[in-house]
Amino acid sequence: MLWGVQGISVVVVIMMAPLVLGITQVVKARLQGRRGPSLWWGYWVLAKTWGKETTVPEYSSWIFRVAPSISLAAMILVAGTIPWAGRVPNSWPHDLLTLFFLLALERFWVGLAGLDSAGTFGGLGSSRITTLGAGIEPALFAAFGILWAVSGRTAITPVVGHLSLLPWGMATVSYGLVILAELGRLPIDNVDTHLELTMMHEATVLEYDGRLLAENQAAVAIKYTALLGLGWVWLSPSLASPLLTAVLHIVEIMGTAALVGGIESRFSKLRYFQVPTYLAMASGLGLLAFYLVMTGGFN
Amino acid sequence: MIATLMTENDWAAHNVRRKNLGAHVLGVTAFAGGRISIHWLMPSGQIAEENWDMDGVEFPSLTVELPEVAWDEREIHDMFGYRPKGHPDLRALVRNPRWPDGFYPLAGPNAPSKPQWIEVAPNNPAQTVEGEGVTIMKVGPTHAGIIESGHFVFSIIGENILHVDLHLFQNHRGVEGQLQGRPIGSVWPLISRICGADTVSHQTNLAMAVEEMAGYQIPEEIQWQRILVLESERILSHLNDLAQIPAGVGFSVANQRALAMKERWQRGLEVIFGHRLLFDTVQAGKPLDVDIEALGTLIVELQREWRPWRSLVQGHHGFQDRMEGVGVVRQSDALRLGGQGIVARASGLTFDARQQMPLYEGWPLDYASETSGDVSSRFKVRLDEVEASWRLMERVLQRSRIHGALPVWEPPSDLAGQAVTFSESPHGLNAHIVAVDRGQVIRYHVRSGPFRNWPLLAKAVAGNAVGDFPLINKSFELCYSCLDR
C-alpha cells in the first residue's frame, strides 16, 4: 500500500511540475496587473522546445550534451526520495543525505555545462551557482538540523508533534529561505530576466536549445515542485491515511506555488554580495532551532 | 569674412575660457570647406562661437584640455577625414571597418553616396585591462530584449568591473548626409525621426532654427503649445525610464505598473497630439492641434495612479537598497566631461537648458537636483521632474485660453543663414547647428543629450559589480540611436 501510494505520488509530482510553474507565473502576472499565460503554459513550452531542432556550440564537448539528462535524472530521483505518504516504509531511499547529494550532483553538472562551451555568460553563471552552492549546502544541513535532533536519523520523516512551536517555526523559516535560494527564486535569482549580466542559473543554460533545453526546463520544473512539496512533507503533520496525506501534499504544493508567486512580486533581487548574509541568516535560524531542540529547553 | 589669425594656443585658451565661465558645448561642427566651429551656450543664454579655419586637413585637438570634445573630434575625423592633431585616442568611432580607405561620408560634394564596401572581418580594437585573473567579457551589439545595438567590452575580475570600453555608433544611418541638399521645408519628417525618445525636442530645434533665420516671432499661444508638447514628451520619456529601473533589479510590480502608466499617457497623447511618440507635431510657425480640455483630464487621471506608485517605490526597502551608492557619477567628472540632463542634475549640478530657453521665460519652474550621483539620485530626480512638469503644464493650461484661429506662417522658400538652436530634451541638452543657403540645407549637425553622457556611464560603471551594470545602465537610460549617425 505504502509503496503503491509513493509510486503514484512520484509520477503525479513529475507530471504536474509544469502546472506548478504555471501557477506561480499566473499569480505573478495577476499581481503585476497583467493577464499572464494560461495555467497549462508550461506543458506547451516544453512540447514546443522539445520539438525544435537541437544545436550544440561548436567548441563544446560531450559534457554539454549529457549534462541536461543527468540533471533531469537527478531531479526525478529527488522526487523519489521524498516520502509523499508521510511515512517511511523503508528508510534507505528516503535519506536526506541522498537528497543533498542529488542536488549537489545537479549543481555540479549544470556548472560544468555552463563552462563547457566557453561562453562568457555561461562561465559567469557557473561561477555564481557554485559560489552560492557553497553557502546553500551548509544552510540546508542547518535547516534540517532539528530532523536529526528529533529522530536521531537522517531519514526524511515528519517532525511535527515532536517539538514545540518556536524551534519548528525557526526551522520552517530557515527552510523557506534556503529553498528560495536553491530554486533560484527572488530575492536571490530572477528566473524571468533577460538581463544576461544579472543571471545565475539561467546564464548556465543560455546556449541550450531544442531537446536539451527542454530537458533542462523539465529538470527545473520537477526540482521546483519536489522541493516545495518537501517542506510540507517534513514540516507539516501527516494524516492517518497515506493516500490522503499524499493528496493533501499535492494540493499544498499548488498553494505554495501561488505563495512563491506572491513573494516574487513583493521583493526585488538582493545584491549578489549580500546573498551570503541571507544564507547566513537561514543557517543561523536552522542552527538555533537545532540548539533549542538539543538542549531540550523548548521541547 | 576676414579670417582671424588664431594660433593653436589661442584656440585652446579661448575655448577653455568659455568652459571656465560655466558655458556648455552645444556642438563641435565641421564644415566641408575646412572650418571647425565650436558653439558655446553661455550661462546668460547667449550663444558664443569659436572658429578654426584649417589650412590642410589638420586642426589642433582640444581633447587634452576639454575631455568632453573627445568624441566630437573623433567623429569629425571619421566623417570628414580632418585630423585632430594631438588627440590621445584616435580609434574609429563612427567609422565602419567596411568603409574603403579614403571614404569620408561628409567630406564634400565629391564623397560617393554609396561606396564599394570592402569585405573584412570586424576588427575594432578595444581598450582592456590586462593582468592575472582579468577576464574580457564582450556583450552585444545584439542584446536579449528590445534594445538597440551597442557593443560593450568589459574587463572584469571576479564579480567586479575594472573597465568598460563602449563601442556604440553601430548603425550608420547617414542622417547628416541625408539632410544635406534638401530644401529646409522638407526635412521635418526626418528630424522628427532621429530619435524616438527626444523627437519633440529635435522638432522644436528645427522650428526655432527656421524661425530664427527668417526673423519670425511666433505668437504667445504657439509658445504655450510648444511647452505643453515638450513637457508631455519629458513625462513620457521619464515614465519609461522610471519603469526600466525597477526591472533592473527584478522588481516587476513597480516595472509593470509604471509601464501601464506610460501606456495610458501615450494613448492619451495619441488622441491629443495625433501621434503616440509625438512624431510630426511641432512645425515652424504653425500652431498645434491641441485639445486643451483632454490634456487637463489626462494629467488628473495619471496623477491618480502616480501617487500610489511613487509611495510603492519609495517605500520599498529592497529596491532603495539596490540603488543607493551604486554607479556613482562624481560631480567633478560630470563637470569635466560635460554631463547633461538628469545625469548631471543627480550629481549636484543644476544646469537645465530650460533656464536659458526664451520659450520658458516667465514660467515658474521647479528644477530638481540631487547630490549623491548614484542610481538612487537619478531615480529621484526623474520622480521630481515628472511632478514638476505636471505642475508647469497645469499652469500653462490654466492661462492658455486660445481665442479664435491662430495665424499660420509659411517660411520663405529662399531662406539663408546659419542658426544654432537648443532645447532641454528628456535626456539633456539637445543642440542643432543648421546652415542654409537659398532654401537648401548645406550643413545640419545634430548633437543630442546622450552624446555627452555615454562616456560618463563608462566612468560610473568601473568599480561596480557586474550584476549591477544593467541597473546602472537603466538609470542613465541613454539613447543608442542618437549616436547612430
Structural class computed from helices and strand pairing of chain A: mainly alpha
Helices and strands of chain A, in order, run as HHHHHHHHHHH
Using the alpha-carbon principal axes, give the shape of chain B. Answer: globular
**Largest sheet features of chain A:** none
CATH topology of the largest domain in chain B: Cytochrome-c3 Hydrogenase, chain B
Number of domains of chain A: 1
- Please report the number of helical segments of chain B: 14
Describe this structure in words.
The complex is a heterodimer of chains A (299) and B (485). Chain A is built from 11 helices and no strands. With 299 residues, chain A is mainly α. Chain A is globular. The two termini of chain A are 33 Å apart. Chain A has one domain (2-295). Chain B is of the alpha+beta class and 485 residues long. Chain B has 3 domains: 1-108, NADH:ubiquinone oxidoreductase Nqo5 subunit (Beta Polymerase, domain 2), CATH 3.30.460; 128-170, no CATH class; 175-474, Cytochrome-c3 Hydrogenase, chain B (Orthogonal Bundle), CATH 1.10.645. Helices cover 38% and strands 16% of the residues of chain B. Chain B has 14 helices and 11 strands. In chain B, the strands form 4 sheets. In chain B, strands 1-2-3 form a 3-stranded antiparallel β-sheet. In chain B, strands 6-7-8 form a 3-stranded antiparallel β-sheet. The A-B interface holds A 28, 31-34, 120, 123-124, 186-187, 190, 192-198, 264-273 and B 135, 137-139, 143-145, 159, 246, 248-253, 255-257, 260, 316, 318-319, 321-322, 465-470.
